[in-house]
Every structure is written in C-alpha cells, then in structure tokens.
Amino acid sequence: MNLDNVIAVxxxxxxxxxxxxxxxxxNTEYSKADVLNEALNQARVEQTGLNINKxxxxxxxxxxxxxxxEYVEGKTLAQLMEENxxxxxxxxxxLVDIQMEVHSKTCPLLNKLKDKMNRKISETEFDATTRYxxxxxxxxxxxxxxxxxxxxxxxxxxxxxxxxxxxxxxxxATQGNASADVARxxxxxxxxxxxxxxxxxxxxxxxxxxxxxxxxxKWMPIVAASQSVKGNEAEREFLAHWVSVVDYQ
Length: 249
What we know:
With 249 residues, the protein is an alpha+beta fold. It is built from 10 helices and 10 strands. Strands 1-2-3-5-4 form a 5-stranded antiparallel sheet, covered by helices on one side. It has a 3-stranded antiparallel sheet with strand order 6-8-9. A two-stranded antiparallel sheet has the order 7-10. Strand 8 and strand 9 form a beta hairpin. Helix 3 packs across helix 7 (195-209), helix 4 (113-123) crosses helix 9 (220-228) and helix 6 runs antiparallel to helix 7.
C-alpha cells in the first residue's frame, strides 16, 4: 500500500491515492465504530445502484483504521465551478439533479435521519428550552425513508471525463426526509460564504422537485442545530442564528 500521494487532508483523516484505489486513513483518536459505520453506509448505498466509489476493504495502517475504496478519476463540481465561474449555475442545476437521483432511492438498513438528529440536538450546547423546542419540531416533521447523503455539496460529487457523476463520502448517510438533506446543503453553501449560490441552489431544487420553499425552511433550525455540534466557533455562532429563528422567513 503506497501512501506517498496525498489527495486531501480533512479533520481527523488523510486521504491518499494508490493507483486505482483511494485510501482514507483516520487519526488514532477517531472512533472505530464510526469508521466501521462509514464503511457499512457506503456498502449499503452501493446496493441502491447509485454511482458511488465501492468499498474494497477496511484495514489498519500503522495502527490507524483505514477504508480502501475505488478511486474515481475526474474533477469535483467544486473544482469545475472554480475553473468555470460562468457555468456555476449550470453546475448547481446538475448538483440538484444528482441529489434528486439520490433521494429517489431507498435503503432500509441505513440509520434513520430522525434518530441521528435527535441525538445531535441532545449533544448541542443550547439551553434546555431550545433543545425541547427543536426535539418537538423534529418529531412533528413528516417521516420519509429516502436516502439522504448528509453532506451533499459540490466537493462530494466527482464528474468523470465522460461526464458520469459519482457521489463520494457517505459517512453521514441516513434514510429520512429529503428536505432535511436539502436544508443541510443550503447551510453548507452559506457556511462556505456563498449566499448567492445557496439561494440559487434552493430555488432550483424547489422548482425541479416541486417542493415548497417553506417546507425546506422548516428544517433549517433543526439541521443548523445538528450541524453546530461539529462546527468551529465561528460556524457555531452563524448556525445559532438559524436555530434561534422561530419560523424562518
């Protein structure tokens, strides 16, 4: 296993390319259960028929857990947007099309989105009254069983040379309400400082899927609270604003 070619460094993990294999090596403090759950998520989503990089093995590298997957040759939508800013809206429309394809699938063995959201809300630093309100809001949202990526953004979609899209990084995959997944993508655009892109993304999704904007917006405080658990201080402050909005306008 050759670990000379680093292709990405993320919090708690480093990703290498070794020929046609992608090796994600997690830091020693990373939970074994989370590593195994990510590999299991990815293996389960493979069965839906979506274009994703397949898991090849779970192993250990120098005492650290690692997931070995297929390497997908291509450019991410984030790279394409940066290289071709005049086509940004076109790429966002493609992002929405791919996300809708993800949401068209079901995968009964994935963890439930509502269970994960409830757990995350309980882990936040918000006061008991706010947490109660968030739990109550979540419980009142419609229960669906669609595949939700959980971190769907332009960096996690790779376009191959022949134009085939592949969705990568299934660590946060769940089954649940697609609009929660959309609310998260919207907030990820905002956290990246791209407010204009976020607005165009949400408008495009609502139009293409015939979904009321208000329906997605009702998820914003819940998803913001969930996202705040792993955010840095600046992100938590930004997300806290969304959580405090009683009814997002």
